[in-house]
User: Fold these one by one.
Assistant:
Number 1:
Amino acid sequence: MRCPKCGSSQDKVIDSREAREGYAIRRRRECMNCGMRFTTYEEVEREALRVVKRNGAPEPFNREKLFGGIRKACEKRPVKLEDLERVVDEIATELEEEGYKEIPSSVIGAKVMRRLEEIDHVAYVRYASVYRQFEDVGAFIDEIKQLGTRGFRDQRQQELFP
């Protein structure tokens, strides 16, 4: 690893811990040259999954892009960052277990929407507005009405009202 401050490749590992529910290792490092401490994450390299976009163009699956889209939908909402990381981990694991080599972006979008509906309805509607490309306000309102009839399935809600 190169130090982000001085660029030296001489460092030592100070601490290693399990991260992301065992799917990664978090390593705390110290640069031997300048003394700066920094954190790195180590993950199992997954087989190259390709996402087929709406226009038919394939691109490599990008965890950070998936996380960014979900995070944007949950912006200024009471959703924990850990919950978002868990969602991304679950979706990536599901895709891996399902054995896809290429996957339509619509399949990933549907998985994200299902999880966002369970976490936060506002985030779900935000994501749906981009994913489903609503053509007019009527389609948007219909989606919100349907969401209201399905009911709130937040697991935390069950804890509050047994």
Number 2:
Amino acid sequence: MTEVERGGNDGIMEKKKTRIAFIGGGAMGEAMAKCLLTKKVAGAQDLVVSDVSLVRRELLSREYGVSCLADNREAAKNADLIILAVKPQNLSQVMGEIKGLSPDQLALSIVAGANLATLRRGLNHSCLIRAMPNMPAQIGEGMTVWTATDETEPRQKKLAQIVLSALGKEIYVADEKYLDMATALSASGPAYVFLFIEALIDAGVHIGLPRDVSQTLVIQTILGSTRTVEKTGKHPADLRNAVTSPGGTTTEALLQLEKGRFRSLFLEAVAAAYEKAKRL
């Protein structure tokens, strides 16, 4: 991995290659490893992945040239950063297996619903990062919100930032409560967007467009609209008004959406997801 500066015994900053261990080689673990390699944040020799599945270990070793192990503790032993990318139901067992990390090691969890208190207790470790990426991280276009314990050193936070930025955009928040909110908005958000895309494509087919044409129109319209918001910096309402002519076709369509409580349903959906995230 990109060399990270460390304080030497004589006060001189020295550089050392950073080793990263992935505990869990499923979809998100693979996505993170792939992004680190693709964006040249790390080399294959800097990564090790542990997974219970022989099929997954063979696939990851073959596709990315990374070292793969079946033993979680062995994988974590010499790593500077340990990324927990397992299913929530397996977290307790995994934490018991790698418990006893050294103070210099940083643990970063992307496990949904596992708060810092749970990680601290399960690992008996205090240098911790909790991150909530979303599915587009699989293609390097993700949105990750993350936080850290007070004991996490600045250099460790910098390391986490470098790793998470390889997945797309990242935002650090000082208060952990925002992670549950991010779970409901950005982590679950791709599903809302995919449903909207699907519905809009079906609407195009309903009025007579060939499905492939409708899909192309919808995807480019959403991409272009999103980039317009990003690049102009204008409020979405201002941009919507610019498209909406008095008494026009857009006005008629928006009227039907408002009749169907489009905004309210989105608000209620995200609020329900947030309440669920807090209960996990």
Number 3:
Amino acid sequence: MAKSSSPISGVAERYAGSLYELAAQAKQVESVEADLAGVETMIAESADLARLIKSPVFSAEDQQKAITAIADKAGIKGLVGNFLRVVAQNRRLFAVPAMIAAFRRIAAEARGETSAEVTSAHALTAAQETELKAALKQVAGKDVAFAVTVDPSLLGGLVVKLGSRQIDTSLKTKLNSLKLALKEVG
């Protein structure tokens, strides 16, 4: 998989790699992954938290105090709690979403899995996730770990990014294709 040359991806890879090494040494990779998923959900559900991590207006001290309070209230302790505090102290909160994605990718590779990004119009049921995992395993030839994000603008279907491949079965894309085809006819 090609690595991006953006500064954010470089920072994210380094921090995620360090966190993975610590988690592997402590045999806590799964619990760290679960805690990071919780952090990712909190960021997605809170506009204030998203603004805190993205805005350069907040001082390092303010970010560190806020992250400490949020982690304590959410029960995020241990490696992930300390990790978030260090990231805030180093003024790298803006890269936390990329760090989470990089950690997930590193952990999946270590387990012999490949990772995929799945965007769905609606939340997937457990049965749908199991079926999707089986289908992706057939395509990739090995186990696939994936994170599902919901984007209602897709209207229906899925967009799956697996390595350099993208499979787009969304209704939005099909309607846009039909719209273009009709413009060419008329």
